């Protein structure tokens, strides 16, 4: 992650910080989120030889995700509460497929560019999680557990 921070700084981003070893990056950019995502993808490709899709959210967007917290009353273990951040709208045809994968006592809430999912029995055997983590969403996505979402907001505001 240290080399990733350095590469992003060399590419002109400011206040680059990383969280954990999973590609969570908080940075300042003068470009729009879509342009920032593409530039980060190019840096990762050039520096590490990896073709990685990047999803960007502004601090205000992450704050809205945390504020909305539609499953907060039932999701008591933040490690089992996931938010999938989408690069664009979820195709309407995918929603029924995700709902079919849902098994009690799991819960699922769709946002404009996020999907909130509560996996009280964990993600290991969850068909819903497998569907959310797969490539069949029809849109680039990345998921973070609630603990990480809150930490990223803290870093973005800090």
Description:
The chain has 158 residues and is an alpha+beta fold. The chain folds into 2 domains: 2-48, no CATH class; 65-157, bacterial protein sp0830 like (Alpha-Beta Plaits). Helix content is 39%, strand content 20%. The protein is globular and about 50 Å long.
Which class best fits the helix and strand makeup?
alpha+beta
Q: Which term fits the overall shape?
A: globular
Please compute the radius of gyration using only Cα atoms. 16 Å
CATH architecture tag of the largest domain: 2-Layer Sandwich
CATH class of the largest domain: Alpha Beta
Strand proportion, as a percent range, falls in 15-25%
**CATH H-level homologous superfamily name of the largest domain:** bacterial protein sp0830 like
- The parts where pLDDT drops under 50 for at least 5 residues are none
**Main beta-sheet strand count, sense and barrel state:** 4 strands, antiparallel
**What does the average pLDDT come to?**
95
Tally of separate helices: 6
What's the number of structural domains? 2
Relative helix content: 25-40%
Q: What pattern of helices and strands is seen along the backbone?
A: HEEHHEHEEHEH
The CATH topology of the largest domain is given as: Alpha-Beta Plaits
